[in-house]
């Protein structure tokens, strides 16, 4: 192998090392998911509070109450 070919090979190898680090394979990502289950009773209590404070109307209360009670 000539000195020029050897120098080109060495240069190519040196250029490949920094590019290999750009692949992102070493990066990590964490996603936190919080699953909370609220009981039907708590949902009904919260709904009643919303009605009592005037945040929702009686018809909205009735519709949401039926949805809560019908849910599995």
How does this structure look, described?
There is one protein chain. By secondary structure, this protein is an all-alpha fold. The protein has a domain at about 35-70. The chain contains three helices and no strands. The chain has helices at about 5-20, 40-50, 60-70. The longest helix has 18 residues, at about 5-20. It is rod-shaped, with a radius of gyration of 32 Å. The mean pLDDT is about 80. This is SHOCT domain-containing protein. Keywords: Signal.
Features:
3 helices; SHOCT; 72 residues; mainly alpha
Short summary of the structure?
With 72 residues, the protein is mainly α. Helices cover 61% and strands 0% of the residues.
Largest sheet: none
Estimate the mean pLDDT confidence: 81
Q: What overall geometry do the principal axes of the alpha carbons give?
A: rod-shaped
Euclidean distance between termini CA atoms: 76 Å
Range of strand content: under 5%
What is the helical fraction, as a range of percent?
55-70%
How would you spell out the order of helices and strands?
Answer: HHH
Total beta strand runs:
0
């Amino acid at each position: 192998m000539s000195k020029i070919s050897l120098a080109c090979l060495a240069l190519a190898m040196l250029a490949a090392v920094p590019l290999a680090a750009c692949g992102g394979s070493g990066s990590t990502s964490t996603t936190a998911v919080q699953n909370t289950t609220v009981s039907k009773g708590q949902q009904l209590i919260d709904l009643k509070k919303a009605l009592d404070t005037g945040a929702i109307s009686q018809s909205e209360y009735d519709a949401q109450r039926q949805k809560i009670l019908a849910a599995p």
